[in-house]
Write a structure and sequence with these properties.
single chain; alpha+beta; Arc Repressor Mutant, subunit A; three-stranded antiparallel beta sheet; 3 strands; 12% strand; globular
Length: 113
C-alpha cells in the first residue's frame, strides 16, 4: 500500500516538474520530443504521452526558454539563455521548494492557531 502511494506521488512529481526536467536535459544536449519521452521512460519508468511532451515543448518555446530547429524532418529543441537562467533560478530556490513540500506534508504550522 505504501509503495503504491509513493509511486503515485513520484509519477505526479515527475509530470508536475516535467518542464524543469526538460530544461535540465536540454542543458546537456539538444533533444527531440521523442528523445524526451524515451528519456523519461528509461530514467523514471514513467510513460508520458506525446501530446503532453509536445504541448509542453511548444509552451516552453513560446516563453522563449527553448528554440526548435529542423534536423532531418525532426524538431530538435535547444535551451536558450533565458531557459538556462530559469533553470538556475529554480536551482537556487531548491531549499524553499523542499520546505514547501515538507510544510504541505506536515499540514502547515499548526502552532500558529
Amino acid at each position: 500500500m505504501v509503495s503504491k502511494i509513493v509511486e503515485n506521488l513520484r509519477r505526479r512529481a515527475i509530470k508536475t516538474f516535467m518542464d524543469m526536467l526538460i530544461l535540465s536535459e536540454l542543458r546537456e544536449k539538444p533533444l527531440s520530443g521523442y528523445d524526451i519521452i524515451g528519456l523519461v521512460h528509461k530514467r523514471f519508468n514513467v510513460l508520458v504521452s506525446s501530446g503532453t511532451v509536445y504541448s509542453l515543448l511548444y509552451s516552453l518555446e513560446r516563453k522563449g526558454l527553448v528554440i526548435a530547429d529542423l534536423d532531418n524532418r525532426k524538431r530538435v529543441y535547444t535551451l536558450t539563455d533565458k531557459g538556462a537562467e530559469t533553470l538556475e533560478t529554480v536551482g537556487r530556490a531548491n531549499a524553499e521548494i523542499n520546505g514547501l513540500v515538507q510544510n504541505l506534508i506536515s499540514g502547515g504550522n499548526k502552532s500558529a492557531n
